[in-house]
Amino acid sequence: MGQEYSTDARLAINGAQELSDNETCFVGIGIPSDAALLAKHTHAPDLTLIYESGAISADPESPPLSTGSPSIADSSLMIADGLTVFSDLQAGHIDVGLLSAAQVDQMGNLNSTVIGDYSNPKLRMVGSGGAHDIMCLANRVVVMMPHDPRRFVERVDFITSPGLFPDHRKKLHLGGGPTSLVTDRARFVFENGELMLKSLFPGFDRADAVDGIPWKINDSKSFIETPDVDDRFASVIKDRLSYLEPNANP
Amino acid sequence: MSDSGKLVSLSNLVRDHVRSGQCLFIGGFGHCVPFALAHEILRQKLANLTICRSGTDILFDQMIGAGAVAKVIFGYIGNPGVGLSHAFRRAVKDNRIDVEEWTNFSIILRFHAARMGVPFLPSRVLQIGDIHKASIEVKSIDCPYTGERLSCIPALKPDVALVHAQRADEAGNIQFYGIDGDTIEGALASRKILVTVEEVVTTDELSRSPETVRLPSYRVTALAKVEMGAHPSYVSGMYGRDDDHFRDYDRISRDPDELAQYLDHWVYGVKSRQDYLDRIPQETRSNLLNHYGKD
Hints:
CATH superfamily of chain B: Glutaconate Coenzyme A-transferase
Strand order of the largest sheet of chain A: 2-1-5-10-11-12-13-14
Order of helices and strands of chain B: HEHEHEHEHEEEEEHEHEEHHHH
Order of helices and strands of chain A: HEHEEHEHEEEEEHEHEEEHEH
Largest sheet of chain B: 9 strands, mixed
CATH architecture of chain B: 3-Layer(aba) Sandwich
Oligomer: heterodimer
CATH superfamily of chain A: Glutaconate Coenzyme A-transferase
Shape of chain B: globular
Strand content of chain B: 15-25%
């Protein structure tokens, strides 16, 4: 069954499964947006998608390039502004944030700023955008990473979006930080400060799930080897997110 | 200056109100990005500019690639949904640009503080991680009421805001609707506000939907009418986003020579607004106008 889906589709499905109905969800562009839309059109019809451009309850019909794109504006129930939605985030009204990045480490820190040294980088990237804010302020955060061992590092080169930081988060009244991480092969959960394997995508085994990740990953108490994957994901991908299909032209 | 004197030509808008070395807020969170106004700044060869906003797009990259920018202040810098900002990347590599990077929320708070006339606003972000000690130093404060530790996000008051909007009257009351992001925030934070609009209408026409009038005449310095002045970005209700232009720009901007040719074609070589519009392929232009049934 796993072979029916493209890599991006599996990642989006794994992300979608982290979301529940009636939640408010702060989403970025790309794979996080795809995951939220998949959830909304399957098990979470009353999921509220919020984009940092200020668009609320958006349901774009075609994949937006920007959080300010026409497909988001045209399909929104409400268009507020950045101050409104980030204020809701800071005041604790957003249940979950979805984030991706170039690098992640075992503390859940994310890097989207530089590869290498900040003052003399090997690669200068896009920076935080809203990612730091979402990671600090959402009640919980789902991290979405393509399974690429280069992206999983002992310590990120730059902490754009801070991960666990349990003592600081409590003292500074911040949100809960990263609670789970999904790849296109598996779902992981942070339990007591440790990233643990929660479930596999059909067609992948334990070795596939942790292949190339530079730290040891144990099974969660709630580990499920072969979870059910909702058949409806396939039809939603076909109908609304066809660019996630295996032979789609991006 | 009397109110009726605010409507000017695009070239006069820049000539009379923008100077080299100033800090410019660039409006447009993906929507209503003021490409035409910023391109006029490049044609008039202004330099050593500081440009700022929360989430940027390829207009920032073009201004950097044109050599007009000494410093960038941003939350995100890239080509949204497509990739990196290549001219910016090269400028960082060659140490040709000063960088001050924040987050989208903290940039918005910086504008909001300036808009409110206060020196800073307290926030919970930028206290853990690496951003608050990389290109910036963010101070903190203990709340005098609760004792909570908060970051102090300093006001940012740009010299000039560049905004593109749907419509205005000749007095400079600006109608703006659709995706805002930090566009109105950044404009009202700035000392001067310069605006380009798609259409100039009567004050009576504007007052039929006063909730869409977002910038009042008393804050707007001057304006010009520029058709499709946000292309290749879009204007809600008027024309769609030229996504292919943004995708092509990724390839073009990877090579400095190709970027120079691009700037010659879309900026320096443009003789008039009609000339610019004629450079957009007819089919593309029809499709963009068709997005809101305007063709």
